[in-house]
Amino acid sequence: MAIKLIVGLRNPGPNYVNTRHNVGGLFVETLANHYNLSFKADKKLHGELSQLEINLNECKLLLPLVFMNQSGLSVKSVCQFYRILPNEILVVHDDLDLPSGRIKLKIGGGHGGHNGLRDIISHLSSSDFNRLRIGIGHPGHKDLVLNYVLGKPSQHDRQLMIDAIDRGIDVMPQALSGDISNAMCLLNG
What we know:
The protein has seven helices and seven strands, in the order βαβββαββαβαααα. The chain is of the alpha/beta class. β2 (40-42) and β3 form a beta hairpin. The protein is globular and about 40 Å long.
């Protein structure tokens, strides 16, 4: 199934720019910059939207204007308006279980404790969407997670994340065309 919507999970506002939790949003912003695209805010859809086309495959880019744990509101609004099915969505998000610099493409699954994914699953009544997981590493103890994800990575870890984002952008032509398995092989291998 071709990808019709790529969502970059993030918290909006200047306080959250460049935090680990916002790496999904950074991916979508970097992807848009790569193709010289700009975003337009749409209050009804609770997000900033852009239109991406690669090899005649069209796809919406979404940066939610709601907080991470309310991401489902924006995703559901866009999906209803543009008639996009869950399996046509790629949600890009931070992942504590992957070390910084790792990036993995996954089809479906649970929320793994990620509040953004939890809210999207709840709003869509489905977990059949694709995920692009960008590793941010783990602070070592669950009590440290909140400050860790809302903190900014070291310069070294940030560079690892940017390199991972670049590798993810390289497989977007395959993902948009619906060749998810090939994109997974290229990225996860």
